[in-house]
Design goal:
The structure holds two protein chains of two kinds.
Chain A (H helix, E strand, L loop, with lengths): L5 E4 L18 H13 L4 E6 L15 H8 L2 H10 L4 E7 L10 H21 L4 E4 L5 H7 L3 H26 L2 E4 L12 H6 L6 E5 H6 L4 H7 L4 E6 L1 E2 L24 E2 L8 H10 L6 E3 L7 H16 L1
Parallel strand pairs in A: 1-2, 1-10, 2-3, 3-4, 4-5, 5-6, 6-7, 7-10
Antiparallel strand pairs in A: 8-9
Helix pairs in contact in A: 2-3, 4-6, 9-10
Chain B lengths: L3 E6 L13 H8 L9 H10 L4 E4 L4 H8 L2 H9 L4 E8 L9 H18 L3 E5 L12 H20 L3 E4 L12 H7 L5 E6 H7 L3 H8 L3 E6 L9 H4 L24 H11 L3 E5 L7 H16 L5
Parallel strand pairs in B: 1-2, 1-8, 2-3, 3-4, 4-5, 5-6, 6-7, 7-8
Classes of the chains: A alpha/beta, B alpha/beta.
């Protein structure tokens, strides 16, 4: 695999959860040093998790949305120039999940707010020159169920409304030259094969985003899934895990933090049980030439994770 | 019973677990200190051990806390089992200066009061309106409108056993030029004041003078230090003033800045203040270390003056 094809997600940085020294993550200086360290690790493209929350409350040092970028750099073009100074050639993609907006029992609020900000995120992705926009088509199942105890009876309505919203988003993405891909998280209303009918209902240009750890946690062999759906894949996230979901953690309100047995669900790439070299080799054999992204979400030490990814990349190169 | 009880304003970021039962196993996964900052059980034990029996909830944490605990009452019960009581919640009264937003501002304020009551709290420390940038300068009519909204929310709060305390940030549209005007326009029976010692000093108030002038309005304190008093308009009115690009901190643990906190404690003694002192650690790289440093300073420097 051509390593220029590989990017790293800025979800490497734990923006939301408590840990010592977390306060650094809200200042601009931290990120600009990080870009240089990513580049020094041999990765020259990044993925940005689009997070509207940083727009509120004076936290625009976190470069995760258009408002923040415009506040600190005036424009996406200037931000890209700044990235270039630190050795980052491009923004490969932008991700978006709607969990922030699942906060009450009002589905109109959820679809209104998540639709608005997803649209803004697509436009931002285009401004950044990104190849893809990866959207999570649902909030955490358990969070939705907390605010909507009758979620299962509302499922058809939810699916219809989300399908309509994604059609609209797909049009916008296509017009902007960005590929819309659907994430397939283990905690989703559309987990595992449930993502496929949703994909079928959308324009052909919309593709699947493979997340190797998420598939594994959901009990699906990622290699088999990739082989079965190779023509529909538009992005691959190389994530790792050792987690076995024996208690339906995927249905809980905070599924990345299993409530009965604390564990780091997503391990640093190369330190879990997913056969990432095997996945990369499979993608090579299939002639896959789309985006490939390393994600070390939930890492307990981002700089260690960065070097662990480098070590894994060295292994892949050999 | 001491005159002053101590709480922490919760500046912990999202705490993902209620309680970790497999602590050793969790630690060994990657042998870092993540396990020490990942559950409310441990966090509340830190507070209890260091002598902070109160916690003030941050509204931006509700979306995490409520699904985690199921309800405000469950969180309160969980905290109480560890010796901690919920004393209140911060509230941002967005756009309360705008006449056409009055109903919405009051509705949101009442909702916040209802939430505090469910948590068993008594204080709603309320930022009166938006940041200065994009909103200020406010006209006299807009300040009056802000006061009208505060009075209306304060009436509902009072009726429900909650004290609304104005809490001014140094970058708020209510700023040094109209800060006291707003206080004077509000009804002292319904609207109180939460002195954030660092915020008002950065804004340009002299801490001791302000307390001397308004001691009868004070419902509670947010205690923190600063080495950045009386910042210029260019800082206070900036688009993104709270978190600096270069990591400069506005706020420090009591005793690590330049405020005359011993003078404040002499004034507290003079006026016989009785109530909660809620410590804030925003900007700290290590909230547990800040909590311990604060406890040392309280016990050795401030409490000997007035307890």
């Amino acid at each position: 695999m051509n390593s220029d094809q590989i990017s790293i997600s800025l979800d490497l940085i734990n923006r939301h959860y408590q840990e010592p020294n977390r306060n650094r993550f809200e200042s601009r200086y931290f990120w600009e040093e990080l870009y240089s360290l990513i580049s020094a690790s041999g990765l020259r493209a990044i993925e940005i998790p689009y997070e509207p929350v940083w727009q509120f409350g004076g936290r625009s040092g976190v470069p995760m949305n258009r408002y923040c970028i415009n506040t600190k750099y005036e424009s996406a073009a200037s931000y890209r120039t700044e990235l270039g100074k630190h050795g980052i050639d491009r923004v490969a993609g932008v991700t978006f999940d709607p969990n922030l907006f699942m906060r009450n029992d009002n589905l109109d609020f959820f679809f209104g707010a998540s639709g608005h900000f997803a649209g803004e995120a697509v436009a931002h992705a285009a401004d950044l020159g990104a190849d893809y926009f990866a959207i999570s088509p649902s909030p955490y199942y358990g969070r939705a169920a907390h605010y909507h105890p009758d979620l299962e009876t509302k499922r058809a309505t939810f699916v219809d409304r989300q399908t309509d919203a994604l059609r609209s988003l797909a049009e916008k993405a296509a017009a902007s030259g960005v590929t819309l891909v659907l994430r397939n998280e283990y905690w989703s209303l559309f987990r595992c094969e449930d993502i496929l009918p949703l994909l079928d209902a959308l324009p052909d240009g919309v593709k699947l985003d493979i997340d190797t750890a998420s598939l594994t946690i959901a009990g699906v062999d990622p290699a088999a899934f990739i082989a079965a759906h190779q023509d529909r894949i538009g992005c691959v996230h190389l994530t790792d895990t050792n987690f076995v979901d024996t208690n339906e953690t995927w249905k809980t309100a905070n599924p990345e933090f299993p409530e009965h047995r604390a564990t780091q669900v997503f391990r640093d790439p190369g330190t879990g049980g997913v056969d990432l070299p095997g996945i990369v080799a499979l993608l090579d054999r299939q002639g896959y030439a789309g985006p490939v992204v390393f994600s070390a979400r939930q890492t307990r030490d981002p700089f260690r994770a960065l070097l662990r990814i480098r070590a894994l990349l060295n292994q892949l190169s050999n | 019973m001491p005159n002053i009880r101590y709480a922490n304003m919760s500046h912990w970021k999202a705490i993902p677990y209620r309680q970790i039962d497999n602590f050793r196993e969790f630690y060994y996964e990657d042998k870092t200190n993540s396990a020490y900052y990942s559950d409310w059980d441990t966090i509340l034990k830190y507070q209890s051990a260091l002598g902070f029996p109160g916690i003030e909830i941050a509204p931006w944490d509700l979306a995490d806390i409520l699904p985690l605990f199921g309800s405000p009452e469950n969180f309160t019960s969980f905290a109480k089992d560890r010796g901690i009581e919920v004393i209140g919640m911060f509230h941002g009264a967005h756009a309360s200066h705008a006449a056409d937003h009055f109903d919405e501002a009051v509705r949101a304020g009442r909702e916040a009061v209802d939430t505090i009551v469910k948590f068993g709290g008594q204080y709603m420390n309320t930022c009166p309106t938006e940041n200065y940038c994009g909103t200020g300068p406010l006209s006299r009519e807009e300040v009056q409108q802000c006061a009208k909204a505060m009075n209306e929310i304060g009436r509902y709060a009072t009726d429900h056993g909650v004290k609304l305390g104005l809490h001014n940030e140094f970058f708020c549209a209510i700023n040094i030029e109209n800060h006291r005007e707003l206080i004077e326009l509000t009804d002292p029976r319904l609207v109180h004041y939460c002195i954030d010692t660092a915020q008002i000093a950065i804004m340009g108030e002299d801490l001791l003078t302000f307390y001397n002038d308004y001691n009868d309005r004070i419902s509670i304190f947010h205690l923190k230090d600063t080495a950045s008093q009386r910042q210029p308009d260019s800082v206070r009115y900036a688009r993104d003033p709270e978190i600096t690009d270069d990591g400069t901190r506005w706020f420090w643990e009591p005793g690590l800045g330049e405020l005359d906190l011993k003078g404040l404690y002499h004034a507290l003694k003079q006026y016989g203040f009785k109530g909660w002192m809620s410590i804030e650690y925003d900007g700290s790289p290590d909230l547990l270390a800040s909590m311990a440093l604060t406890r040392y300073y309280l016990d050795n420097e401030l409490r000997p003056i007035y307890d």
